[in-house]
Structures are given as C-alpha cells and as structure tokens.
Amino acid sequence: MTIRCRILYTKGPDLRYTANLDVHRIWERTFRRAQLPLAYSQGFHPQPRLNQACPLPLGMTSQAEVLDAWLEEDLPPAQVQSALQKAAPPGLLIQQVEIVDLSLPSLQTQVRSAEYTLWLLDPPSLEALRAAVDDLLAASELMRVRREKQYNLRPLVESLTVASSQPPTLHMQLSAREGATGRPEEVLDALGIPANAARVERTALHFQSS
Amino acid sequence: MLTPQEIQDRLERILLTVEKPGRYHGGEFNQVRKPWDSVSTHVALIFPDIYDIGLPNLGLAIFYESLNQRPDVLAERAYAPWLDMEAAMRQADIPLYALESRRALADFDILAFTLPYETLFTNTLNLLDLAQIPLRSAERGDNHPLVIAGGHTAYNPEPMAPFIDAFVVGEGEEVIHEIVAAHQAWKTSNAPRPALLERLAQISGVYVPSFYEPEYHPDGTIAQVRCIHPSAPPTILKRIVPTLPPPPTRFLVPNIDVVHNRIAVEIMRGCTRGCRFCHAGVINRPVRERPVAEVVDAIQQALTSTGFEEVALLSLSSSDYRPILELVETMSERFAQRHLTISLPSLRIDSFSIDLMEKLRGSRQGGFTLAPEAASDRMRRIINKPIASQQLLDTARAIYSRGWTTVKLYFMIGQPGETMEDVQAIVDLCKAVLREGRSVIGRRANLNIGLGTLVPKPHTPFQWAATNSFDLIRSKLRIVRDELRTAGVKVTWTDPHDTLLESWLSRGDRRMAEVVYAAWKRGVKFDAWQDQHNFESWQAAFEEAGLDPDFYSHRERPLDEIFPWDHISPGVRKSYLIQEFKMSQEECLRPDCREQCYACGILPAFNEMRRSLGEDEWFCPIPAPRSTPVPEETA
Ligand code: SF4
Fold this sequence. Notes:
The structure holds two protein chains of two kinds. Chain A is 23% helix and 37% strand. Chain A is an alpha+beta fold. Chain A has two domains: 3-104, Alpha-Beta Plaits, CATH 3.30.70; 110-207, 2-Layer Sandwich (Alpha-Beta Plaits). The model of chain A has no long low-confidence stretch (mean pLDDT 93). By secondary structure, chain B is of the alpha/beta class. Chain B folds into four domains: 4-232, Rossmann fold (3-Layer(aba) Sandwich); 262-363, Transcription Regulator spoIIAA; 364-511 and 547-557, Transcription Regulator spoIIAA (2-Layer Sandwich); 576-635, no CATH class. Helix content of chain B is 36%, strand content 14%. In chain B, the strands form six sheets. In chain B, strands 2-1-3-4-5-6 form a six-stranded mixed beta sheet, with helices on one face. In chain B, strands 15-16-17-18 form a four-stranded parallel beta sheet. A three-stranded parallel beta sheet of chain B has the order 10-13-14, covered by helices on one side. Chain B starts with a helix and ends in a 24-residue tail after the last helix. Chain A binds chain B through residues 14-19, 21-22, 25-26, 28-33, 35, 40, 46, 58-59, 87, 89-91, 121, 195-197, 199, and chain B through 12-17, 21-22, 24-29, 31, 253, 255-257, 261, 303-309, 339. The structure holds iron/sulfur cluster (SF4). Iron/sulfur cluster binds next to helix 21 of chain B. Chain A: This is DUF2344 domain-containing protein.
C-alpha cells in the first residue's frame, strides 16, 4: 500500500551549491541508502515519485524545505525519519516526517510565499540600509529584467525589514506562487547589493491553508 | 599560507560567480573529514582535471578509502578548477585547497597526483603553481610537501621528471602505505629533504628521477641513463599486488552531476590477448581475477553505501574473465528488484557477448559496442587481433536482430604497415555491417564508428614504430569519413593534433620537460579538452626549447636504440617486445598466452611472488623450481 510522506528539512551549507535538479537526485539516493521503498511512476521510464515544494536558488541555505515522497509500504513516520537521517548526506537535516492524505494537491500549487534572512558580507551602515529599503518599499513599480523577460518586482515583495543586529540583517517575505516568484538576489540587486556579497537563508515557506 | 577560514571567506565571495560552484565545495556523502591535528600524515590526492571527470576516478577512490582507514593518516582531495574558477582564485589570491578541510595544499605532507594520460601534464604544473609550490623538485625545500605521481604515464616519467619528486611505477595499493611510512620516519628524524628522497628510492617500484641523469648522443638519442645516487637501483621494476585486494565500496556520492555517477568494480586486471598496440595489455600483466562472490558482495555493499543505480564491471577484456557467466547470472538474480543499469565493456565479438548483455537486461539505448580495431586480415595479423570479418558480420546481425538498433565499432588507423587498402577495408566492412542491420531492422539500423589513431606507446611491441604524419592521418580519416556519409552512420575520430601531442608527450625524453614547461608558460592547459586548441602554443614551446617535435613522433627507431624509458620496467622484457615487433612485420599471429606461455618476462620478474600463490590465481603458469637463480635480463 502506498503512503505519502511530507518531509520538512534543512538544507545546510554543505549543500549550498547544489542546484534543485541535483537535490532531487540526492533525495533519490538517500531513500535508496535508507532502503525505503520509493514508489515509481508508471510508464516507459519509471521515475521515483518525489515532489519538491519550491526550488531553492543556488547558493542559499534553508531551514524550511518541504518534500513529498511516495512509499510503497506503510511505515511509521518516526521510522522513516530516522532511516532517512542516517542515510542523509552532510547538510541535509530531517526535521519532521508526517503522513499526509494521498489526495492532497501537489505542493508546488499550494506554495504562496517564502521568507528569507540575509546576512550581508559588507554591511552598509544601518541608516543607509534603512534608507535603501524605504526607497524600495515606497516605489509603486520596480521594473526589472530577468532571463530577457521584463517584470515588476515590487508586488512580489510582501515585506522587507532591517534588523538592527550587529551587523544588520535583512528579512523579507516574497511571493512564491507559480509564475509569480520573487527572488532574494533580485531584491538585493535592487538595493544595490551584489548577490555574492550576502548569505541567504530561507526561513519559512507559507502554503495555502487547505 | 591562508588559514582554512580565510580561504572559506574568500571562496564565499566567488563561488556564486562561477559555473557549477558545487565542483569546489566538497561535502559529498562518504566524504571523510578528520581533525587536522589528529593524524601525523596529511595526503592530498589530486586528479588534475575538473571535478566532474576526477571524482569518478577509480584509482583515487582506492587510495581515498584505504588511506582514510588508517588512524594516523588523512587523505583529502583536489581537482583542477575550470578556467573561470582559476581566474577567480588567482584574482582573490586563493591558493589551491583541499575540498574537505579547505586547507591550502601547501600545508599537506604529500601531494599525490593521478596521471593516467599525458594530456594532464600541463594541468599538473598549473595546479602546483596554483598551490603556490615551486614547480621544480630541485626548488622545493624542507617545508614543501612531497610531490608524487602515479598512473599509466609513470611508465615513461621522463617528460615530467623535473617536476615530480617521486613516481610510483605500477600498482599503488601497497606502495602508497610504504611511502607514507617512509615519510613518517623521515619526519621524526628531522633530516633534510634529500634524506626523504633516499628513503623513497629504496622502496621497490618508486622512481626518484633526480637520482638519474640521461646522457645524449649528438643526434639527440639517449647514450645512457646514469644512476647518480648510491641508493638508486639501475632499473625500476613496476610494483604489482599478488592478489587484487578487496575493492572500494564507500564511493563518494557527488552533490552535483559528474561524468559517471556509478559504482565501478574491477573484475579482472591484466589481459593475455597480446594486441601489439596496447599499452595497458603490457603494463598490467599478469592477469588476476576477483572472485565472483567478492565482486557481488562489493556491489551489494556499495549500493547500500552510495544509493547509486549504475554499476560498471571493469576489465580490459570482460569475456576473458573466466566466471563471467556466473557473475552475470548472479548479478541479474541478486539485483533483479532494483532499477540498476549495469555496464560490461570490452566484450569479445561473438554471440556469447550478446547473451551476456541480455542477461544483464541493460538498456539497449546506448548501443552495443565492439572493437575490431582492424578490418583486413593482414592488419589483424600485424596487430595480433584476429577476428574474422564473417564473425563480425554474424555478431552484428545478431545484435540488430535481438533488439539493439545501434552498433558501435572501434577501429584504429595508423598501425605500422597500414596501406590505403587497409583503410578502405574499414569502409567496406562498415558498409557490410550496416547492410546486415538494414536487412534485419531496415532503416532503424544505426552504426557508430569511432576512429582512433595509433600512438606507438612505450613498452609496447610498436614502440619502435613512427606515428603517422599529420597529412597521412588526415587523408586516412578522410577516406573513412567521405565514404561513410550515409544516413544511419555516424563517424567520430581523434583529431590528428591530439594524436601528435599524445605522441610527443608519451614518447618524450627528459628534455621534453622544458617543452611542457614552456607550453604551460604560454597558457596551455586542459590539453585533454578538444575545445582548448593549444597546438600552436605547443609548436612554439618546442621551438623555445630548441627541440624538434618530429624527432619524437615521426622517427622510426632502430632496434638497438636506448629509449628514455628503458630503465623503467613493466616486467615484460625488451627482447620479448622485439620478438613481437618482428612477428608483426612478418604478419605472424601469436595466440593468447593463456594457452601457452611465451616467457614475456613476467615470471622471472615476479618469480617468488608467483610461487607463493595458488595455481589459479594468475593466468601465468607456476615456473618450475630452479636450482640456481637466473640473472634478470637487463633491457
Ligand atoms: S608470463 Fe607467460 S602467461 Fe604470463 S603474461 Fe607473460 S607470456 Fe603470458
């Protein structure tokens, strides 16, 4: 009998430079090492049934990744969690495993927004940063070009704040709906900060409450 | 040197600006991290090409696992950064570092380079430079790491002699531990660096080039290679292991895609077929097999410890592995439930090979590969690879009719004595193969042809022969390409520039080192990459060093010439190779030496070792006991 496991996990610094497609492969191998029976899709080239909520851009870490995995055996979530953790590569920390209803809609369609924390490697003064953030928030439109397509970044920024820690950090909540996804490095760029001068962590994913 | 933290901080700023930053980050499953101060010897294993190619290297995997099992040693890894990353590292003044600890390579005790092919030479210099270590052995002091190298190129180490402190000739599984022991003893002795080299020179199979000095005739050929140090043996006999040790199972599982994401198990080492162009066939003698149970258990363990889905069973000639059927049947039974892809390369041209592939139930997508090498009976006698054309056609027909739509054939041009008719024979044979395919499955039949060009390699029966000239190679390639411009046929070939480069580097003497250096100075690197086009720089480098490239590649060498590599011995005698060369000129075949031993030299070289082993452990017979020891023939 098939079950659907929803896995909440951390993608740590060891996996920062692993892109989304490769994360998928890492999961497949982790399941195989854990000897958990992944269910496969039908068809000529059967693929293991794994479903990630929301791709994480290269270079970022995350406290809040979510994955659905279909298993061919009814196993208790605690057992799945401990087997996975033993087989996980450095940087993959399994926080929680729960069994969810097979009929739930796919994760990708349910993501609404994501939160990020950014540590700046060359932090400007708190005042300068605040001023830049205020300017950005005050704009009604922020036209940008990404992959040769023009889009307006402003509506995708749901919140943007500066924490007066030493050094200051940025927190933002960006839209993460299909076809309307805000990217932290785009916000950084709009603030005049190069993307490689920040350490970015996703801290939460918000789903449509169903 | 920068501290690991400083290196890490600088890296963080550049990694997002380069292509595939995961290459430079480590963190793989099965990676071993040990506290730096918990061990006495720090070894960096280096594959001087990019991560994607170096990570799956089996040699490196063997050393990584076996060194890290020792509590007193840590082994970490480094690969060549791609051009973009090298530029970024130089800009940020980041030295080459090991992936595990982020330590600068200069902080290690031993840097061990894997050099399976000559086109890695310039990269080796470049990596030493990136590591901020003097390129030349003579310029390194007591505080620099020991730089060693091994792999197939060590059978002619001369073109790299000034840059490498010591070479390992032959199989490294045991020697590496002896080198570590020598290093540890030297370190506690507080003696200066030359004392370390002396210790190393006493290990069998280790070549310390600075203890030898070549002298040349006015025409540039070698007069003699003089031993200039009392602890240096006149000839360095390769090292071998009597029995293959258990294979590695804890393969590194990369976090990014690399060229082979798989478990590789060597099922057999060595080959008795005696193809006369084949370097591996000479240097890997004698033949040693791994028992089926050991292979299957290793795969089982490796599957569990890696999660890979692909398995490669490696050997020079899979069909000659005696229990091949048992292995294939056991594997298909044991792993039937898993979604595995199993590859079994180097199969003989017969229907039994097709049976084997069918039992493995592998995908038929990639096509079925065969290597006839030559297409005319005359050439087959010259290279000693007798395959009847009819047998090839029958096999191809069977392959097409049993579900494969693509047959891949490998041929090698440029063999000594080859005429244009022999090249034409390749075309005719390929057309006949395609006709077979068409007659069975019609237009769906595909044929891929790979054309290599002979580089007469040191220690092979063809070492006296010349490499074909650029123009000759080109005209031969053109015949095949032009005549096989047919739908369903795909021809790939080695660029003649690459053939020449490989000739120079593999057949060079110690003076060639200055060419390698000059080429590197001109920015040459990644010679193994077709898109790097370094040919003109190489020619300029020859000019700068005052050497003639043709002297190395296009000169037929007289039988009594002393070769730059004659003091390195693969255990096979030069007199045997001469015999083989002459037989080739007489177009005489010499059957597989499993049927009859031709006394190639392996047995006297490893007499005691052979006697200590059971009948079945090597394909070579156990020599009859002798009352007086026979002196070993010197080359
Ligand atoms: S010693 Fe005899 S059997 Fe062994 S590899 Fe040489 S020729 Fe073959």
